[in-house]
Design goal:
The protein is of the alpha/beta class. The protein has a single domain (9-254), classed as TIM Barrel. 46% of the residues lie in helices and 15% in strands. It has twelve helices and eight strands. It has an eight-stranded parallel β-barrel with strand order 1-2-3-4-5-6-7-8, surrounded by six helices. Strand 1 (9-13), helix 1 (20-34) and strand 2 (40-44) form a beta-alpha-beta unit. The longest helix has 18 residues, at 184-201. The chain is globular. 47% of the residues are buried. 2-phosphoglycolic acid binds at residues 13, 171, 176-177, 215-218, 236-240.
Length: 256
């Protein structure tokens, strides 16, 4: 983290876990543990839990996010939820392009782009996920893959929007939910690569202001080392975000 330039952001990605009652219980457990955080703290929860999470976090420093949104304002898209719907219930953040969406639900760089646009049009802050498969890393094309994902997702996004309303999460697919973590050096290398790309596409100021997280088996033990890297501005946390003490330990690491 470089706290002179950027604020650290720790976001939990609860994935398909927790009922509304369980959501309330977990947030009540997290709240006192993170109340003095010197970083932004977000919990991204299933659609069905958003209302409960917004209620439970009222008056606290925890903000709430959704895990996806559709690209259209409304229409015949059974089972989907639109950005205006999220805006209407007052949820400020949304994850877009998570690798599980890309892997299991046919998400493409183009639909990621369209969803990012829909979210920005509705004043949501986007956590944009990018990441390579293990095979791509082995083929030495990590940065090409990431650059393609970033360029397509951000096409037409202004520097202001990028600085104010987009957080990028670098999540190597091989590190998600596997217990395998990128080394701190690997994480920083790609995050710096993304920042250099933003400097090329936009300018140095925009690159310096953009928050770039790492995600993929970040936990209470490895958070310190990952977050001590200059270009790792926080984390997107899956498994460890479901355990209050572990999530709080990561928030504490980001608060240093
Ligand atoms: P993990 O998930 O921390 O369980 O690896 C991270 C994510 O998918 O965002």
């Amino acid at each position: 983290m470089n706290k002179q330039l950027r604020k650290a952001v720790i976001a939990g990605n609860w994935k398909m876990n927790k009922t509304p009652d369980e959501t309330k219980a977990l947030i009540e457990e997290i709240k006192p543990l993170v109340k003095d955080a010197d970083c932004d703290v977000i919990v991204c929860v299933p659609y069905i839990d958003i209302h409960t999470a917004l209620e439970a976090t009222k008056g606290s420093n925890i903000k709430v996010g959704a895990e996806n949104c559709h690209w259209a304002e409304s229409g015949a898209f059974t089972g989907e939820v639109s950005a205006p719907m999220l805006k209407a219930i007052g949820v400020p953040y949304v994850i877009i392009g998570h690798s599980e969406r890309r892997q299991y639900f046919g998400e493409t760089d183009e639909t990621v782009h369209d969803r990012v646009r829909a979210a920005l049009n509705n004043d949501l802050t986007v956590i944009l996920c990018v990441g390579e498969y293990l095979k791509q890393r082995e083929q030495n094309i990590t940065m090409e893959v990431i650059a393609t994902q970033v360029k397509i997702a951000l096409a037409g996004v202004s520097a202001e929007e990028l600085k104010e309303k987009i957080i990028i999460a670098y999540e190597p697919v091989w590190a998600i939910g596997t217990g395998l973590t990128a080394t701190a050096q690997q994480a920083n290398e790609v995050n710096k690569g993304i920042r250099d790309l933003i400097a090329d596409l936009y300018d140095a100021d925009t690159a310096n202001a953009t928050v770039i997280q790492y995600g993929g088996s970040m936990n209470a033990k490895n958070a310190d080392e990952l977050l001590s890297q200059p270009d790792v501005d926080g984390g997107l946390i899956g498994g460890a975000s479901l355990k209050a003490p572990d999530f709080a330990a990561i928030v504490e690491a980001a608060s240093k």
